[in-house]
Amino acid sequence: MRTPLLALLLAPAVLLSVPATAQQQQQRQPELGAPTATPEEMLGQMDPAASEQEMQRLIAEAAAFPLGSIDNPVRVGGPDGERAYLARLRCADGAAIRLGARNESGVGAFGTVTNAYAVACGGTTRRIVFDMYHEEHVENRAPPGFTIAG
User: Fold this and answer.
1) Which residues, other chains included, contact 63 with Cβ-Cβ below 8 Å and sequence gap of 6+?
2) Tell me, what's the pLDDT at 129?
3) pLDDT beyond 50 at 148
4) Which residues have CB under 8 Å from 71's CB, separation 6+?
5) pTM (global) more than 0.85
6) 52-96 pLDDT, tens digit each
7) Any alpha helices (H) in the chain, and if so which ranges?
8) 133 within domain boundaries
């Protein structure tokens, strides 16, 4: 019976020491946001030619997958680009698509968050994934089973 009583008496002392311990650990960690590279190194990482080459490599790798999948999302410029693309998208027979809900789809092939729409043609519904962080790109291809109008 002495052990439970001792534990009850020591519990407040242990609980009171936790914030002090956490504060000591926090002081030992490097400051958040502290630069880890020199300004010259940071500028070298911002080389637009290098990032363009990287994007071209990612586009080439994504081409191995069906357009509109998470591995090869349709590249568009923002929500307006999504809407413009969907306005041109048609079923294989040229009929208008029926558009369903838009949902977040996870990180795509280009390292950004993607969105997916449920798109129905006839009795079939497919999910088409979009990456809206490509302001300069206008996609003129259609995912398998669809066509693009004018």
Assistant:
1) 72
2) 98
3) yes
4) 62, 64, 65, 108, 109
5) no
6) 899 999 999 999 999 999 999 999 999 999 999 999 999 999 999
7) 2-28, 39-45, 48-62, 78-88
8) yes
